[in-house]
Amino acid sequence: MLRDSLKTVVYYNDRVEFRTKSISKKVRKIESFGTFTDDVKMKNAFRLVSDSMYLLHQKYSRGDELSSLKPDLLKALEYRQWQKNYADALPDNEQAERIGWEEIREDYLEEFLKWLSFAYCLDMGKEYYLHMLALIANQGIDSLLDKIAVEMGDVERTISKELLFKKRFSKLYNVIESEPEQRPELLKDYLDVWYKLEGSPDYHLMSTDAYIGYWCWEAALVTKLYNIDDTIYLNHPYYPKDLVHWNGE
To answer: Are 104 and 145 in contact (CB under 8 A)?
Structure first.
């Protein structure tokens, strides 16, 4: 059953098929022996992780059974390991090439939080979380990411005192910094402004295939991770409640 009401199953079938083929093409490119440099393979592995996040997003919107998404999460972790392996293999004079593909940015953090949300809500396990967090790296740089990572089990992690992307994430950060009884209302407030914080993209109005569903993944992660009562925002249009309330069946 569709979870997103703005597009049809046929639309999502097409999007999922396109993304799946795109992933297969990139995998073949990386696995081709002697054809591409480690730099090219590193960049394609990065894109594979991004494609995997798109695929998870599209499948959720389409209404796929959530357990069926676990293989995609395992692949995402494998692709991110590939990215690190190829980056590590770059010669010393090319090591600077990896920085722009690894150093935290606002859009990267949004994608990290989406990945963490799917992984935690679908109970991929502590070993997965720690491996994932180690590959994401950027420890001790952003307080939001650091505090979420510690809550997920990365207890030896250095916690930054700085929130890097204040305009985008200060309201979410306030949720985890507040007293438990304040969190439901604060998270509802965050959901209410989330679309505007995303830049009010209006993808659903475009005559392109850019739209894949409006979901505030980080709200799912924080709700589940901090055991927040979501009663007052359960039916918020941007809240992926099925992910939060998945029970393993």
So the answer is: yes
